[in-house]
Amino acid sequence: MSLIEWQSLFEDVFESYPDKWALRCVYRHDSSQNRRLQNKRVMDRTGYARFHCPKCSNGWASAKAKITLYYPKYDEPIGTVLLRFYGQKCKKCDGRKLSFADPEFEVDWINLTLEKLYESIGCCFYGKQRPEKPKNDYNKVINIEGPHESKLCEACQLGRCDQMPRNKKNKT
After folding, report:
1. Whole-number Å distance between alpha carbons of 110 and 9
2. Helices vs. strands in the chain: H and E counts, helices first
3. How far, in Å, CA of 14 to CA of 120, rounded?
4. How confident is the prediction for the chain on average, in pLDDT?
5. Per-residue model confidence (pLDDT) at position 127
6. Average pLDDT of 37-56?
7. Sorted alphabetically, which SMART domains does this protein's record hold (predicted)?
8. In the chain, where are the structural domains located?
9. In the predicted model, is pLDDT for residue 83 greater than 90?
10. Which parts of 9-160 are beta strand (E)?
11. If we measure between CA atoms, which residue out of 155, 68, 163, 160 comes closest to residue 117?
């Protein structure tokens, strides 16, 4: 799904709040914006997505696709959520300095992610109670077995990947 489609789903989920909320994208090469994100609340999500190489048109799927949603802390102005996609490099093009392909998630996964964010923001800024977790919480973290090539994973390279050993992860 494109950023415009993410934004449309975001608006649908967040329309009931009294304040206007917007979803913006964090671009991987904007180092000044990336530095400012260190002071934000963070929601990391990992899920199944498709990727398409921008160079050779190779396509692949991964159950370890990653995003981060950044939202304000209590003492910051509210209204903006920043979305950071973590890409993967194409295995066929490996060895060349190529750009990362961004993940393309299913609509249902995006909606679940945005609903979780909506709940978190509701608790932080609008005094809402966290809903009780169902006994079969399918959003819980699951260790997915299978190959993971850190050299192709942008989140690994930035210390943000769930598949990295805990002692090597960045805490941002």
Report:
1. 8
2. 4, 5
3. 12
4. 84
5. 87
6. 91
7. zf-3CxxC
8. 3-168
9. yes
10. 22-25, 41-52, 59-71, 80-86, 104-105
11. 68
